[in-house]
Design brief:
About 40% of the residues lie in helices and about 15% in strands. It is an alpha/beta fold and about 230 residues long. It has one domain. The strands form 2 sheets. A 4-stranded antiparallel beta sheet has the order 1-2-3-4.
Length: about 230
């Protein structure tokens, strides 16, 4: 055996041995399905008020967790994965932060990684149903079980709301359910936002008025969303 053959065979053997380690590191370097699977969970505290009131069941909680690919951190915080309509995990919302920030802090090579966000629940758009959008991911998850005749999505943070953010919804009937506030600021913002979106995309976009018409002054001071409104009525 020549030196070149020895070197080649040795290199192949080393490569074969370290390949699984390299693959595992790559799988957990950026949002991926192995990462989603590794933190999967089906028990969440935010469901409990509705379960205790008899409005939802454990079975429905487990169904929603699977449908939205929910996870949990080791400390028990819910992980809300942003998975696009191509079934690609883009990022995950954990508390008031994003998993992309933690990954960039851990891996210097990711400093120039351009993070793309999408609507929470966007992977569910294969269903041909009317679309409803709320701010909070946990609100979307709960309402999915209470009102399954709609696809419930969440925008997570108002900074996401460019016209392009809703481009996957072209041709759909879409209703946005804003939080309420004492001065109607959020509602007016969404009226303006809807007008801008309609100029760019063929979306039948409506802004729901339930909270503006029916929330009490106290509820408006608390800036409740639609699931808070339902919870208050249980």
């Amino acid at each position: 055996m020549t030196w070149d053959e020895v070197f080649c065979n040795t290199f192949k053997a080393i490569g074969k041995r370290i390949a699984p380690q390299v693959k595992q590191k790559m799988d957990f370097m950026v949002p991926s399905w192995p990462m989603v699977e590794a933190c999967r969970a089906n028990q969440f505290d935010f469901f409990q008020p509705f379960i205790k009131a008899g409005a939802l069941s454990d079975k429905q909680m487990h169904h929603a967790a699977k449908r939205y690919q929910l996870g949990k951190t080791k400390s028990g915080m819910p992980i809300f994965w942003m998975i696009d309509d191509m079934m690609m995990p883009q990022d995950a919302h954990i508390g008031n932060s994003w998993i992309s920030l933690a990954l960039k802090a851990r891996e210097p090579l990711l400093q120039y990684w351009p993070v793309h966000h999408c609507l929470f629940g966007q992977h569910l758009l294969e269903d041909d149903l009317p679309v409803s959008i709320v701010e909070s991911e946990q609100t979307a998850v709960i309402l999915n079980e209470l009102f399954p005749e709609n696809i419930w999505l969440a925008y997570a943070t108002i900074s996401h709301l460019t016209p392009e953010f809703l481009s996957p919804l072209v041709g759909r009937t879409v209703t946005i359910y804003p939080r309420t506030d004492p001065n109607m600021n959020t509602y007016v913002f969404f009226l303006d936002y809807a007008n801008i979106v309609r100029q760019h995309y063929d979306i039948d976009l409506r802004i729901d008025t339930t909270l503006e018409q029916h929330a009490t002054a106290d509820q408006k001071e608390r800036c409740i969303d639609i699931v808070d409104f339902l919870l208050d009525s249980l």
